[in-house]
Amino acid sequence: MIQHRTNMDWMLRDLAESVPCARHVIVLSADGLRMAQYGTDPDTADRLAAACAGLQSLATAVAHEFPHGDGRMRMVVIEVSGGFFYMMAAGSRAYLAVLADEGVDAGLVSMQMRDLVARIGEHLTAPPRSGEQVA
């Protein structure tokens, strides 16, 4: 568990409720720990957070292949049978992820994610973990 975690779940409500077809909204740390959730149960959110950490790592590896980029992952979008997955860098070592059903307005979900990150990005930050911190 992240030591500074407060209940950030409420911050995700506006995003989830303003995007028709949004199913799950989570915030995770770079190492795949769930920091906040809305619209899903803790077990599902934990599985998604762990999967997101792997995707973030892959996206960062791809980003390093662009010679004029900064090597950071900004956004990942995956279309699967049944819906879409969006993940966006949200703060230092933190990411925002949304799962949405088919029919979601891709532009709306991206815009709402960007707006949320711009409004509360400083709250969506996971400090580096060290051996001295209590888990």
TrEMBL record:
**Cross-referenced Pfam families:** Robl_LC7
Q: Tell me the leader sequence span.
A: none
Give start and end of each Roadblock/LAMTOR2 domain: 9-100
Q: Which domain of life is it from?
A: Bacteria
InterPro entries assigned to the protein according to its UniProt record, in alphabetical order = Mycobact_SerProt_Inhib_Rv3364c (IPR053141), Roadblock/LAMTOR2_dom (IPR004942)
UniProt name for this protein: Roadblock/LC7 domain-containing protein
Species whose genome carries this gene: Streptomyces kaniharaensis
